[in-house]
Amino acid sequence: MKELINSLKGDKVIWSFVALLALFSFMPVFSASSNLAYIGHGTGNTLGYLLKHLAHICIGFLIIYWVHKVPYHYFRAISKVGLPIVWILLGYTMVKGTVIAGANASRWIQVPFIGITFQTSTLAAIVLLIFVARYLSKKRDTPITFKSSIWELWLPVFVTILFILPANFSTSALIFSMVLMLTFVGKYPLKYIGIVVGVGLVSLTFFIVVAKAFPDAFPNRVDTWISRIDNFTSDKPDEDDYQIEKAKIAIASGGAYGLGPGKSIQKNFLPQSSSDFIYAIIVEEYGLIGGIGVLGMYLLLFFRFIVAAHKANTVFGKLLVVGLGFPMIFQAMVNMAVAVELLPVTGQTLPLISSGGSSIWMTCIALGIIISVTKKDEEILEEKVEKEKREETLKRMIDEQIAKENAMEDETFSIQDESENPMNAVLNKKQKA
């Protein structure tokens, strides 16, 4: 075990926070899966769901380990090649996507021969943000013109978002927000960001108008998230209101100290209690203290991402940490905000805590890349320390050699003096005697 821990490179604090969140996730997932167990096979036995979550977490940590071994600068080329592949996957999802876990839109594809469902938009977010970081780092020392950036930066961004938008507004909005944040951090001209925001809002409005005018063009996709926004801004009762009400009841029932692990009542009524609304179950079982504790863990992880970005020795490394780390924390805040009705229902999971395979694995890929950046900084620091040690050792050896040569020269001069003047030898013998 000690050898395994020693083999982990990179920021140990990030490793620790990730491990703590993953370990904590077993308790709420085990408890909140009871309704799925009753619906699935009518026994209420959640052991199978716990083992499934354990498998997802173990595979996730293997992904972090494998990815953090890859030098992070390799992801420059991977993002450029991977973006067209992501577009193909997103296009296939729009046409042949499947619906799982009671979702209202086809956001998943099934991997052939394995049977694992995979949400392509999560992979698209990672590849796109790496692509944006690559562009900004490449253009850091050269002036950026809006005309050139339209084709090199914003066209790939809008194409990716356009593929995701019909089925998943929340993810496309999250990706667009994070791209804007990354361009701001990467010192992209602020006036150009303003133009892009304006174009994005106009394009979204036009898209909604077209979708409402031709509802059959996007069956069972656009109408879902449009109705969610409409219902959130009005008092119309719907299924989302039912989920929100149950989530608020769970939070209110928790009080300061909670009902205790496994004693949640609303988990039996919330359809997405182990994924989208797991934070409500956490507060119900562990109280306000548990809810604040989980929030604090994400904030500490966010602070550690800031430290890692500051320590990164390249612009690309800094932007990678910001582009992949900040969305993770922002997604967690969105999930918590939905549970307390600050935002409409989005379908965003709580990273590393909610159940689910592809969402956990994509988070682990992002964490592996971030840790790879911190690993490189450690390697540079170790090389610097090792170089200083070698220089110090070499200097000590040179000093010892010089001291020996000086001693030999003194002895030689002493012998020469005795041979030239016999009286010196007699005097030296008398002094020794």
TrEMBL record:
GO annotation terms (biological process): cell division; peptidoglycan biosynthetic process; regulation of cell shape
Membrane topology: Multi-pass membrane protein
This protein's UniProt keywords: Cell cycle, Cell division, Cell shape, Glycosyltransferase, Membrane, Peptidoglycan synthesis, Transferase, Transmembrane, Transmembrane helix
Gene Ontology, cellular component aspect: cell division site; plasma membrane
Catalytic reactions of this protein: [GlcNAc-(1->4)-Mur2Ac(oyl-L-Ala-gamma-D-Glu-L-Lys-D-Ala-D-Ala)](n)-di-trans,octa-cis-undecaprenyl diphosphate + beta-D-GlcNAc-(1->4)-Mur2Ac(oyl-L-Ala-gamma-D-Glu-L-Lys-D-Ala-D-Ala)-di-trans,octa-cis-undecaprenyl diphosphate = [GlcNAc-(1->4)-Mur2Ac(oyl-L-Ala-gamma-D-Glu-L-Lys-D-Ala-D-Ala)](n+1)-di-trans,octa-cis-undecaprenyl diphosphate + di-trans,octa-cis-undecaprenyl diphosphate + H(+)
Top EC class, one word: transferase
Sequence intervals crossing the membrane: 13-38, 50-68, 74-92, 113-133, 153-180, 192-214, 286-307, 319-340, 352-374
GO molecular function term, any single one: lipid-linked peptidoglycan transporter activity
Principal cellular location given in the protein's record: membrane
Subcellular location: Membrane
Stretches the record annotates as Disordered: 409-433
Biased composition (Acidic residues): 409-420
Enzyme Commission no: 2.4.99.28
Homology family: Belongs to the SEDS family. FtsW subfamily.
Protein name (database record): Probable peptidoglycan glycosyltransferase FtsW
Protein source organism: Flavobacterium luteum
